[in-house]
Amino acid sequence: MGALGVLGSFGLTGCAPSGDTAAGGSGAGEGTSESYDAVIIGAGGAGLSAAIAAYDKGLTNIVILEKMAVNGGNTNFSSSGMNASETKFQKEQGIEDSNDLFAQETLDGGHNTGDPELVQFMCDNSAGAIDWLDSLGIKLDNITLTGGMSVKRCHRPTDGSAVGLTLVPGLVAAAEERGIPTKMSCEAKELVKDGDAVTGVKVDLDGKDTTINAKAVILATGGLGANAEMVTKYRPDLEGYVTTNQPGATGDGYTMAEDAGAELVQMEQIQIHPTVEQETSTLIAEGVRGGGAILVNSEGNRFFDEMSTRDKVSAAELEQPGGFAWCVFDQQVYDANTAIAKYEKSGLVQKGGSVAELAEAIEVDAAALQATIDAYNAITTDGAADEFGRTEGCIAFAEGAMYAIKVAPGIHHEMGGVKINEKCEALDASGNPIAGLYAAGEVTGGIHGDNRIGGNAVCDIIVFGKNVGEVVADALA
Ligand code: ADP
């Protein structure tokens, strides 16, 4: 999808050794080796942040490995925004928020199964991460709501567009400016250990087995949503679900970390997202609902609080006839979310000049749909209590053009993963750090618990990605 804007813009050299490389080994077809201070596996949001932050702290002999021919990973598809509290942009816009409220709502959203210390760390460092991105030219000052938050704290690009499409090119440009080498189409296969310490990684480099030696290995390999076998290993009930994940999200990091002695936690916590267009696996951004859209079933009726958490909305959708819903919205919502024009270009959006015309287009009873919209409007205009308990993002539908996208749940995010501490050190089953091994981003686990709030993944990958880069730079200084 939108990743196309950055394809090939970074690390074009395939797997050719970088200028920083101390290459050794033998000729073509045989194993070679290279050495760096730190190797970062994965060029998504977490890996790019880690590399930039490490570099800016003086750790310049580093390399990023990316198994795909394109960088950005699932971060390219991040649609909602980045949650953050006590930010300068919230203050400028008169939004009152606190790190503690953010932490509380994150823990509540995960039914108190998340890691309170890591959550607090993430929230306390979120405003700093927003400032850091701003300093890199990535301004996220358009703030909205996603399900499970009581205060506007989901930070988006100024024009309200999908955050990934600003974030990835911005991080790529920052890495490029610093001359940080990236080896594209370069797949990490196995971590190398010397005794208990991780000392490098074996990679497939242009068809050759190569060992990258490093004093620190940072795993930033993202999730497993594109590996159906691994998904069903942890969650047999998710067999047959579509996935929103890019093809490189095959869970390699979990296998490599586990083989190196790291503990994996909460791997069964695979989040499904309630608004995925099923033919193309396109994720319909949560900001669409946050901006006022409703979900109706095939009978034209609402059935749940659209702003509730993803697990509950998904479960409610699956109980509807056919197990799907229509995400219905008006021109105001369309105009406030630039992603919708892209969905329309891809043929995902049904349209009508009125409620009746839309109803005809989506084969839903027109009177029922009109009654549903009238009742929803009454919450927003008369202050009537919503029968489904929605209190957030209630904005009355205006007359005129109406839109709908057919959605159902899809596999979205692995919330479990490598157990880490606040320093992003990978921990073994006894809670001891594995020397030389660090992790950040989706590959880590236990932060969000059994349900992640929309917009918290970007906060997680930027806060912990930046953090791990700084921690490793300090450790090797
Ligand atoms: P995060 O949000 O945690 O940064 P992403 O999905 O955005 O995660 O990025 C993870 C990146 O790691 C993806 O670009 C993916 O292709 C890459 N990756 C996954 N496994 C490997 C591997 N074995 N070797 C190199 N890169 C990998």
TrEMBL record:
The EC number(s) this enzyme carries: 1.3.1.6
Domain annotation FAD-dependent oxidoreductase 2 FAD-binding: ranges: 37-458
Keyword annotations from UniProtKB, A to Z: FAD, Flavoprotein, Oxidoreductase
SUPFAM superfamilies associated with the record: FAD/NAD(P)-binding domain, Succinate dehydrogenase/fumarate reductase flavoprotein, catalytic domain
A Pfam family reported for this protein in Swiss-Prot or TrEMBL: FAD_binding_2
Taxonomy, superkingdom: Bacteria
Cofactor(s) of this protein: FAD
GO molecular function, one term: fumarate reductase (NADH) activity
InterPro entries named in the record: FAD-dep_OxRdtase_2_FAD-bd (IPR003953), FAD-oxidoreductase_2 (IPR050315), FAD/NAD-bd_sf (IPR036188), Flavocytochrome_c (IPR010960), Succ_DH/fumarate_Rdtase_cat_sf (IPR027477)
Database matches in NCBIfam families: flavo_cyto_c (TIGR01813), PRK06481.1 (NF005064)
Family: Belongs to the FAD-dependent oxidoreductase 2 family. FRD/SDH subfamily.
UniProt-recorded name of the protein: Flavocytochrome c
Organism of provenance: Rubneribacter badeniensis
